[in-house]
Amino acid sequence: MSLKNTGFAGFLILAFCCSACHKAREWDDTQWDNRLSGGSQTVFNSGIGAFSSPFNGMSPWLEANHELGDMHFEATFVPAPAQKFGGLGPVYNSNSCFNCHVNDGRGKPINPGETLKSMLIRLSVPGENEHGGPLAAPGFGGQLQDKAVFGIPAEAHVNVVWHETEVALSDGQSQMLRYPEWTLSEYYTNPPANMLLSARIAPPVHGLGLLELVDESTLLSFADENDLDGDGISGRPNYVFHDKSGQMMMGRFGWKAEAPTLEQQIAGAYNDDMGVTTSYYPNESSASQLQNDKLKDDPEVPDSVFHAVVFYVQSLAVPARRNSTNEQVLRGEQLFAQTGCAKCHIPTMRTGTQVVFKSASNQLIHPYTDMLLHDMGPALSDNRPSYKAEGSEWRTPPLWGIGLTETVNGHTNFLHDGRARNLLEAILWHGGEAQNSRDAVVKLSSSDRAALLAFLNSL
Amino acid sequence: MNTKQTLLLALVATIAIVNQSCNTGDDNEQVKNLELQQNILNDFAENTVVETYSQMSQKMAQLHQTCTDMQAQPTQEKLLRAREEWKTVRQYWEQSEAFLFGPVATENIDPGTDTWPIDLAGLKAIIGNDDELSESYISNLGDELKGYHPVEYLLWGENSNKTAEDFSERELQLLALLSNDLMQKATQLLSEWQTDGKNFSATFTSAGPNNSTYGTQLLVFEEMVNALAGICDEVAGGKIGEPFHAKDPALEESPFSKNSLTDFKNNIIGVKNAYLGKNYGLSDFMQNNNLSLDAKIKNEMENALKAFDAITLPFGEAITQQPTQVQNLAEQIDILKATLENELLPFIKKSIASK
């Protein structure tokens, strides 16, 4: 060993000693494994069950609760009175949670002539209710139930016509886009004039428990209602009525952030989507209509089941990213930031402190959402305001797991009404605050566009 | 070069050679595995999935034919034949539940086929009213009024003691229409996988970067193993566990035909068939790579299947009268599930490159 080498060895020893006496520093956020979209609540499952895995590290008691909820999430309701699982309808959209949120994933729209399977139509008339929310359509309520139990009339039948339009891209390429025209027919009673319709596909439900745990202050820190930084993007929170506390709260869930908690979201889905009453919403959605069953059986689902289903959704983990170190994907990740996508689809945040359920507490997560409302332009507007959300405003949907949609659900229909047939179409529909980002994507070279899509598919 | 350096060089060279020779062995092994992996997937798509769906669809057509014959003239002989045929169709359906992924799930075929519970009151109302029955009338009914179990109800009656004379004209008409609806779904399901249909088989067997459903072959294997563990979990925890723990026969899945235990057993037979494959199965891969785990899985499958034999009563009665046997059955299936999930799956993840 030469003298030089000896010197080097000495340096190594010195370096080792130094590092040994160094106090532990806080671990830089950038050093985390970037595949872990859900922090410690990430699962390495990229198959059809990718959205269906429970949180890690639950106690046996919580696991049992999750499983009970799982069973009831999949349970099929039948009309009351029935020996078991009674309570469906009288009017409804689906007979189980699972039939819309297939594999805990995403619903899809229909072709002309088909019946809605995993989506629904929200209704209202112009004006606001006493809490500033949408004004229920007389005789129909806030949601159209296009199905009814045997012998009872459904509220109306839903029809769709798809229109096509073409968008030119750089490199001489182009992309066809389609958009729906929804109409109702076979009304059970005369509808009010000016009834407003908003079509919504069932969103995936994984990771929602983590998003519920993000502190409101974290989400509000993303808001820039008056666009003070002048970047053209002005996210703002929705504020909606929390029926449990009787107070206004920040809205988090649903396409327009109309539900403040998962509990309320799920109680609403039981009530409106399936016609099943809970202690949270003990009155049938059709209570004031002629379809009312007049049975004294409410709530049709006991609290033990309702709470288990809420917990089930709250404790669904997030699938890990795939190919996150692939060169094309890394290039796409850069472009995602450069084109401004990441300004609303915020990649990284932390969940708040949760003392009851420590394994979800203070997790570094990558949901790619800011949970805020953004103006998405007139082409996406449903012209139906809901609390603070104007017709053209939609809540940034999380993108984690989006690349697994085809595997889990067998389709790639995105956006609130499922009009986009793939991720590129979804991007091209972005307008309003996202217009600049969308235009930037149009101008990308085709290989860069492919990289951007490869990145999205790695989520 | 001094002695130390020579020694060092020799050591490095030796290590390199040893490594190299190991690698060659690994490479051969890997090529062999890659070939086998592809064979397993091809075999699974063709000889397990398409074959099962094809059998199901054929038997379903027979059942529909018998139901149509009954409508022309109901006899006890035809009724008994229809019941046997229903059980045969069920056999293939339950076996197919060992692979509840792909179109059966994503195309919403399962809900209208095997919905349980059914809307018994609604079904009775349809039998009792004078609505005009037609194919479109049936297709407009909710899922809770269609599928195997409404047909089961019509064939056996609520107390499982129906005779050919008990059928009203309307029940016969409804039976023919409901069996037709079920037949169409069986045909659709088959066509979703068939190479001359929508060919999900191609998606399943051609994993790779250009495959938007399965980006890697590992994903397909995970899908298979997860489905096997999934149905074991469903049988042990749901189908058996829920009625058993609630001591409630009303939660039983095929109560009219008293076919539940056969249903469950066919689920496990489906798991076994899927694992063994016809010419190439997961089992072959495991025999090459982890013989002891393969033996363990096979042993646990046999234990689970044997545990069915100890139950001599229909499931609805066994949950209260043969609780030890029912509990043991659920436990054996749970043991199998745990091995599939905690040993087979990690082994597959470790052994199959995610490329």
What does this structure look like?
Chain A has 459 residues and is α+β, with helices and mostly antiparallel strands. Chain A is built from 12 helices and 18 strands. Chain A has 2 domains: 166 residues, Cytochrome Bc1 Complex, Chain D, domain 2; 183 residues, no CATH class. In chain A, strands 5, 6, 7 and 11 form a 4-stranded antiparallel sheet that branches. In chain A, a hairpin with a 4-residue loop joins strand 12 and strand 13. The longest helix of chain A is centred in the first third of the chain and has 19 residues. Helix content of chain B is 75%, strand content 0%. Chain B is globular, with a radius of gyration of 25 Å. Chain B starts with a helix and ends with a helix. About 3% of the residues of chain B have low confidence. Chains A and B meet through strand 2 and helix 9 of A and helix 3, helix 5 and helix 10 of B.
Largest sheet of chain A: 4 strands, antiparallel
Order of helices and strands of chain A: HEHEEEHEEEEEEEHHEEHHEHEEEEHHHH
Using only CA atoms, what is the Rg of chain A?
Answer: 24 Å
Figure out the total of helices of chain B.
15
How many runs of DSSP E, i.e. beta strands of chain B?
0
Helix fraction of chain A by DSSP (H/I, runs of at least 4) = 25-40%
Portion in beta strands of chain B: under 5%
Q: How many structurally independent domains of chain B? A: 2
Q: Helical content of chain B, roughly?
A: over 70%
Q: Helical segment tally of chain A? A: 12
End-to-end separation of chain B in angstroms reads: 44 Å
CATH architecture of the largest domain in chain B: Up-down Bundle
